[in-house]
Amino acid sequence: MNEEQLIERARGAALKAYAPYSRFSVGCAIESVDGEIVTGANMENACYRLGLCAEQSALTTAQHAFGLDKVRRIAVAGGDGSGSELKGEAPVTPCGGCRQAILEAAHLSGTDIEILAASGDGLKVERLRIHNLIPHGFGPANLKDSA
């Protein structure tokens, strides 16, 4: 799958978001090393802190489908999902908590996972690596000295 197709899957997932409070729909598509694709979308809750990010949703699905150690690449897109097409001009990057979760997958796989941060309209894309988004991150490798 090329990056445009992966971004389109993320944009499509955003249209399935449940975002009545922020009205900011986010979708995520994850590609495995074997080419399998899973998606997720944000899901808000009236108790705001109980919401779920698109990346967390997709990572959970990835764990069940093929394992976090097989994550190859991630696409994220977000914006106004109130219509039949996702809108928005600014590329969307994962929040801090999602960066930590992606870093966990990177530590498990031993790779610097690529993240395609796309605008809602899909016209702008930033190509990022997880270790640049969360430098000096804390993950499974940091626990090697635990009892």
Number of strands: 5
The percentage of residues in β strands lies in 15-25%
Largest sheet: 5 strands, mixed
CATH superfamily: Cytidine Deaminase, domain 2
CATH C-level class is: Alpha Beta
Number of domains: 1
Distance between the termini: 42 Å
Across the major sheet, the strand order is 2-1-3-4-5
| Regions with little confidence, pLDDT below 50 for 5+ residues | none
Rg, alpha carbons: 15 Å
Overall body shape: globular
User: How many helices in DSSP terms?
Assistant: 4
CATH third-tier fold name: Cytidine Deaminase, domain 2
Question: Fraction of residues in helices?
Answer: 25-40%
Which structural class do the helices and strands define?
A: alpha+beta
Give a short overview:
With 147 residues, this protein is an alpha+beta fold.
Describe this structure in words.
The protein has 147 residues and is an alpha+beta fold. The chain has a single domain (3-143), classed as Cytidine Deaminase, domain 2. The protein has helices at 3-14, 54-65, 96-109, 130-133; strands spanning 25-32, 37-41, 71-79, 114-119, 125-129. Strands 2-1-3-4-5 form a five-stranded mixed β-sheet. It is globular, with a radius of gyration of 15 Å.
